[in-house]
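Let us practice reading a record.
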Amino acid sequence: MIRLIIFLVGLVSFKSYSQSYAPAANQIGTTAISKDSNIFVSWATGIELKRGFLNISDTNFQLNGTNKVTYGLPEAALFQAEGTSADIVSLGDGGIATLTFEAPIKNDIGPDFAVFENSFLSNYLELAFVEVSSDGIHFFRFPAHTEVSFVTQIGGFEFIDCRYLNNFAGKYEQGYGTPFDLSDLPQDSFLNLDNITHVRIIDVVGSIDSQFATFDSFGNIVNDPFPTPFESGGFDLDAVGVIHQGLLGIKENFQNFSFYPNPAKSEISIATSEYSDIQLIDLSGKIIDSFSVQGFKKVDLQHLERGVYLLNFSSKSGRSSKKLILE
């Protein structure tokens, strides 16, 4: 029995340091995908956010009158990844962000979408579980696996080697998405892998204390930086990019237009290859302006407040939305 216990302890120790998975961005064998990769065909366009605690092990702890994280607007997680430390929304301990899309994600060869976090270093990693749904009701979690030892707590400013991690959002540094392949999910009558309408990001509570711990799909405690009792604590969501997109009605992700500059100060120039109807919308959903363009048009923005807006384009060929930043 003693030999068996020694063997099992040795096996767990070996497993915790075996580095089975892909290395950091820009290294041979990495699966990291740059935010500028042309394999992305669209990005999340809607979000529902439930903020988590600043410190789930001390829910009396507050900053600025609240015990929940507050950093970032939910809309910061929409549209293309920025790849910066600032333009994100923080989830906090156990926080949840549910993203929606103009058209569904579908299962195809290789990764089908990617999740972007904002880590400024390749080994300072705040993690999250990822779940998907094809009806907005039944959610299915990707089989995440950690080989990080949970004997000693990783402190709030300590590091993790991403080669110990698989199917966790936050595996890669800012500007690089962690890919997810829908083929990794089991067949289920409540899940249509060719019609994924929702992607849910759930912050990992990285405590190794069993009272607060979260577990991977194999029953291992997930050990990541904890506590992080800051306004920007927990997983910081930058974006969710779609690689394989299904069709919903007319063709989505219409690309026969451009506008510049972005960010803009007082006006933008819009160019289209065909007659297009355009709406300028603020983040509350209010239509600020609507007009049509065929060819080229300059649009005066001097009357608008500084902030983030959406430009919705539609034509007989398709439709799309783009984020406009007004400085």
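A brief commentary: The radius of gyration is 21 Å.
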